[in-house]
Specification:
Helix content is 34%, strand content 26%. It is built from 15 helices and 22 strands. The protein starts with 8 loop residues before the first helix and ends with a strand.
């Protein structure tokens, strides 16, 4: 078998010859031998009893790896590094006593990983520069070709194909900037010993710390690196691997795989490739090469605190009942507010206000879906004063506010002009829309009809933090399996279980339905 390329089904299909060689056995074990030579030269130069004849012998066999000897030895000792130390020693009998002297397995293993990754990143850098150059030509050639630009998958304004290409170039330029910074910051591990203390070299050099401090810089220079990581254990930090993978992940986004679909009905067999619903995913995806959605979600979460409160002079408005603790400047003072709640699962909200030195007015939004909204101040129920959809109370001292409201199950109907939803109903509780899943209600969800508006809300058995809704319905039963039949239809009573729409497809792939048939009359 050839040892000059890395072999796997993926590498043979997709990797370039350059990359296959970088991660091949030849490259790996030749790099091991270069590292052993660099270590021996360094130790000789720092005063250990190593001869030039021994080093010349190592260099003479740096590239002719005797794989057969290493493989036979590994069957005996079950250790790849020690097997190759032995195999190298067979070829270099005069130098076998100085191979790997004072080092641990990670000296060759981890340093080689760093070296191979660095060389591979250089190839990626060259290819990235070439792609940017080709895109520049494309952009210039099509700078006057008009096209329609879309925002959130809706027609927005005219632009040109060349302008669109510059957007791709900009993203690749950002990748190139990150890549060049990473390449410039790559360091060799060096020879740190079992726990990163170089204890073995303290023995070899009789405790001469000044001499030992020269080992890593000298090895780094011989292997083409500026320096070694100053602190490590036996291995380099796995943060290095994470940084490399993050860079590659950014470059690998293909710019054409988008997802902006919140389906109201799923039948997995209708979402197969080459169908009209192929863009609708029947299962949750680990990642999408999306232009805006993931960053927008992250941005929204990061800025969520800005939407909870509003301030107008001595009036503080609470827009969202999200559990939080914050300081709010009011006139020349700072008021501390803390909200504890299980919203959106129930309407019991506790608000603690401190730092009140003068009269302020607290306004609390009354959700449109709420019923029996009640407000208490320091344990006393307040007469409800409402202005523009907000209940308000005035306080002059530190206070405790309790808010209570019901969130009954609601049944929504679409406008009759939405033909697909005529005769159907959607279930909602508070701000949460619910759906049916096949795992709870069986297949063919289109055959389920809601027969009663009586709803039982209970803690979810699958998702303990939320609530599910149990309803009564009927399932349509056909007496014939044929495409058409005059045998008539019948129904059987069934329990319907609905879960929050946001949670669908967290258990297994299957059908999902938001708009449910309703028995009228």
């Amino acid at each position: 078998m050839s040892n000059d390329k890395y072999v796997s089904p993926l590498s043979e299909r997709y990797a370039s010859k350059e990359m296959q060689y970088i991660f091949s056995p030849d490259m790996k074990f030749k790099t091991w031998r270069k590292l052993w030579i660099a270590l021996a030269e360094t130790e000789k130069e720092l005063g250990l009893n190593i001869t030039q004849e021994q080093i010349d012998e190592l260099k003479a066999h740096a590239d002719d790896i005797n794989y057969d000897v290493a493989k036979a030895r590994e069957k005996e000792v079950r250790h790849d590094v020690m097997s190759h130390v032995y195999a190298y020693g067979v070829q270099c009998p005069k130098a076998k006593g100085i191979i790997h002297l004072g080092a641990t397995s990670c000296y060759v293993g981890d340093n080689t990983d760093i070296i191979l990754m660095s060389e591979a990143l250089e190839i990626v850098r060259k290819k990235l520069i070439n792609v940017i150059a080709e895109l520049a030509k494309f952009a210039d050639e099509h700078k006057n070709l008009p096209t329609l630009a879309f925002t959130h998958f809706q027609p927005a304004q005219p632009t040109t194909v060349g302008k669109r290409a510059t957007l791709w170039m900009m993203e690749l330029k950002l990748d190139l900037d990150d890549l060049e910074y990473l390449i410039g910051s790559m360091r060799l591990l060096g020879s740190k010993g079992t726990t990163g203390t170089q204890a073995s070299f303290l023995e070899l050099f009789d405790g001469d710390q000044e001499t030992i401090d020269k080992i890593d810089p000298m090895i780094a220079e011989k292997m083409g690196f500026k320096e070694c990581y100053p602190v490590s254990g036996q291995t380099y930090s796995r943060k290095v691997d994470t940084r490399v993978l993050n860079i590659l992940a950014g470059i690998a986004q293909d710019g054409k795989s988008f997802f902006y679909v919140n389906p109201l009905e799923i039948k997995p067999r209708q979402c197969m490739p080459h169908t009209s619903r192929a863009h609708v995913k029947a299962r949750r995806q680990k990642w999408f090469g999306v232009a805006c959605c993931p960053p927008n979600i992250a941005r929204t979460l990061a800025s969520l605190g800005q939407y909870i409160y509003g301030v107008d002079g001595a009036d503080i408005y609470t827009h969202l009942y999200i559990g939080n603790q914050t300081d709010i400047p009011v006139n020349n003072d700072v008021v501390q507010i803390r909200i504890d709640s299980m919203f959106p699962w129930n309407g019991n909200i506790k608000v603690k206000v401190q730092g009140v030195k003068e009269k302020i007015k607290l306004h609390f939004r009354i959700p449109s879906y709420s019923e029996n909204f009640q407000l208490y101040c320091n344990g006393e129920e307040q007469e409800l004063k409402v202005n523009n959809g907000y209940a308000y109370v005035e306080i002059c001292e530190n206070s405790r506010i309790d808010i209570q409201f019901d969130m009954p199950v609601a049944f929504l109907h679409a406008n009759y002009k939405v033909s697909a939803d005529v005769g159907k109903v959607a279930i909602k509780r508070g701000p949460i829309v619910y759906c049916l899943e096949e795992i709870d209600n069986g297949p063919d969800l289109q055959c389920i009809y809601l027969s009663s508006k009586e709803a039982h809300v209970r803690k979810s058995r699958s998702f303990p933090e939320c609530f599910e809704i149990e309803l009564q319905g009927r399932r349509l039963i056909s007496k014939s399996e044929g495409l058409y039949s005059s045998d008539g239809l019948s129904y059987s009573d069934v329990n319907i279980q609905a879960i929050p729409y946001a949670y669908w497809n967290n258990r297994r792939e299957g059908e999902m339905l938001v708009w449910i048939h309703e028995i009228i009359g």
